[in-house]
Write a structure and sequence with these properties.
alpha+beta; eight-stranded mixed beta sheet; three-stranded antiparallel beta sheet; about 10% strand; globular
């Protein structure tokens, strides 16, 4: 690991002696608000576009009224109209990574007649160059205190026991740095792991095209608190294509295969510019002012189970991490690996691959051409969908209802469930507890709903179900809260493994009672992999899909609502780019102390000095 030390260099890549000062970041004059004419002009543009998010028509109306008020005093208008304001924002060089696109279509064999419509369609993918996005992220001064330049292992000072927190404290980054260091030309570089995440999201149920497929990027060097916070530590870099077809062809093997391969081919194309920088250092400036030689590497991928299946090219119902048989997921099994999968694909036909190993063998994964990448290893833990929405909501809460009906009949079970709802609704107001006036009965469960219900569900079922069911919930709750810790120690890992064992022991009551027939459930099975994943990647709360789902609001849903719904994607791209430019300008002006105090007091002080 000693080769990847994050040693500063000059802009040409020549290493600097220890203690050499960083090159100062370019500063403007205190009165240079370029491309804006003044602080007022910038603050107005930022307020109208970022915070108020009002339409162009309303901006025009507001500016018309404002400019009218200036006529009697001979004042100059800030902006004539929304077009001038947008043009000023667009001319900002900061945060400027242009959107690019490419198109693709089906090129395989076609039937002689009744050609499926999807075979004739063209699919557009829009993306930003990830290398330039990373360059912008590394150069941000506001990240300079929350970035790790090298992998590390951290120990408790009192007990000398290992602890895991941020991504670079995990074993995966350490091992990757060891592999990279075999090439002496990379020594002194900074290893930059690339964290990706993707997930379809719906923006409107009342219009025709209502789903989008965003791809997000972060880097492992920034600390978990930055990735979780709304500080643009996770960046939208692409909108992937979503192939559609009619019902007749939607379930055909050919369409499913094309849909999978389109996903992988798109990711490979978007990321291909990073490949040279995975073996040869690239010089980039960091937020502390220093240049460093950078080596990229594909890191963990944040995804829910459906997306994990697509990424790992496995059959739904199998584990994406290990080789446990689909019908017996909780048996001990070896981990999947790229080398093993490639050997199996060489040896077996497609049917045996699917039936015996759960491998979809006719897809070329996007990782195939990248160095040091094993997609099975890189599937990140997902607390939200595996534990909170999956094991708690979809499994245990539903099992309790089924258990009560199996033991007491429908009528009595409903009466018990009504009392459980009354108990949930009767929870006294308290900081950190959410009220559920109607108990469990709400139309659509969100992740926050499930997390809030977890806090009050255990006492609500006490007395209505056997002690083993209560203990099952208790073990799951303990596991959930332990893996959500910001810092996890060796002692925490022991407690996590104990909670898993108790959960597996006590849940047997559901099988013994006939409530469920099997525990071969991929999301629930994933619990057993958490201790190893924590050792690899640090605390799981830095890689959860709750991060990307939160980003959907800022990057997809809010921009969509600001469009006129006519070919909205192009408008969404422009909106996101303007938001990035305004945010970059605000960071730069703040760094130089140009936004201290209010706009009014700053202007009054300026006028007084001129007077």
């Amino acid at each position: 690991m000693y080769g990847q030390t994050g040693r500063p260099c000059d802009s040409s890549g020549n290493f600097l002696p220890a203690g050499h000062p960083a090159e100062p970041l370019a500063d403007m004059r205190p009165d240079d608000w370029s491309p804006y004419s003044s602080r007022l002009e910038f603050e107005l543009a930022d307020f109208l576009f970022t915070r108020s998010q009002i339409s162009a028509a309303n901006i025009n109306e507001l500016l018309n009224l404002w400019n009218t008020s200036l006529l009697s005093t001979g004042g100059q208008p800030i902006f004539r109209d929304s077009s001038e304001m947008y043009k000023t924002i667009d001319s900002t060089p900061l945060g400027d990574v242009q959107w690019e696109n490419f198109s693709t279509s089906y090129t395989g064999e076609r039937p002689t007649e009744n050609v499926p419509p999807w075979m004739n369609d063209t699919y557009d993918i829009w993306f930003q160059n990830p290398k330039e996005v990373i360059r912008n992220m590394l150069s941000r001064p506001d990240f300079s205190d929350d970035i790790d330049y090298r992998p590390f292992r951290e120990y408790e000072s009192a007990t000398d026991s290992r602890r895991w927190e941020d991504f670079m404290s995990g074993d995966w980054a350490w091992k990757q740095a060891d592999i990279i260091s075999r090439d002496t030309a990379t020594h002194g570089s900074t290893f930059v792991p690339i964290i990706l995440g993707s997930d379809k999201t719906m923006v409107s149920v009342a219009t025709g095209q209502n789903d989008y497929y965003p791809l997000y990027l972060s880097i492992g060097n920034i600390r978990n608190k930055v990735r979780r916070a709304h500080r643009n530590g996770v960046v939208l870099i692409a909108f992937l294509a979503i192939p559609h077809t009619d019902k007749e062809h939607a379930s055909t093997d050919a369409f499913r295969r094309f849909r999978r391969q389109l996903f992988h081919a798109s990711l490979g194309y978007i990321l291909h510019d990073l490949m040279p920088g995975m073996t040869e250092p690239t010089v980039m400036q960091f937020g502390d002012g220093h240049y460093r030689r950078v080596i990229f590497g594909l890191g963990p991928y944040i995804a829910d189970y459906e997306e994990q299946v697509l990424l790992a090219c496995i059959v739904r119902g199998w584990c994406v991490k290990c080789l446990a048989m689909r019908q017996a997921l909780d048996t001990d099994a070896l981990y999947r690996s790229r080398e093993h999968a490639e050997a199996l694909i060489e040896e077996f036909d497609l049917k045996n691959l699917r039936d015996e190993y759960g491998i979809v063998g006719d897809i070329i994964p996007f990782t195939s051409g990248f160095p040091r990448v094993d997609i099975y290893e890189l599937i990140a833990p997902d607390i939200l969908h595996q534990i909170i929405k999956g094991t708690f909501k979809d499994h245990l809460v539903e099992w309790v209802e089924s258990y009560l009906k199996a033991m007491h009949g429908t009528a009595k079970a409903n009466a018990i469930l009504d009392d459980i709802d009354r108990r949930i609704a009767a929870v006294a107001p308290f900081t950190g507890l959410r009220r559920f006036p109607e108990g469990r009965h709400f139309k659509q469960w969100t992740g926050n709903d499930s997390k809030a219900l977890m806090k009050v569900y255990l006492p609500a079922i006490e007395g209505h179900v056997p002690a083993k069911i209560v203990r099952t919930f208790r073990a799951l709750l303990e596991f959930t809260y332990l893996v959500r810790h910001n810092v996890i120690t060796e002692e925490t890992l022991v407690a996590i493994e104990d909670a898993i064992n108790r959960f597996h022991m006590h849940r047997e009551i559901f099988r013994q009672s006939g409530t469920v027939q099997t525990f071969s459930l991929p999301r629930q099975h994933a619990m057993k992999h958490y201790p190893d994943l924590i050792r690899l990647f640090g605390a799981p709360n830095g890689l959860c899909t709750s991060i990307t789902e939160s980003k959907h609001i800022d990057a997809v849903k809010d921009p969509y609502r600001r469009t006129n719904r006519n070919k909205p994607l192009g408008q969404m791209l422009i909106i996101n780019q303007r938001l990035d430019k305004l945010a970059a300008s605000r960071r730069d002006f703040s760094r130089q102390g140009m936004l201290e105090g209010s706009c009014l007091t700053a202007t009054m002080q300026l006028l007084s000095t001129r007077g």
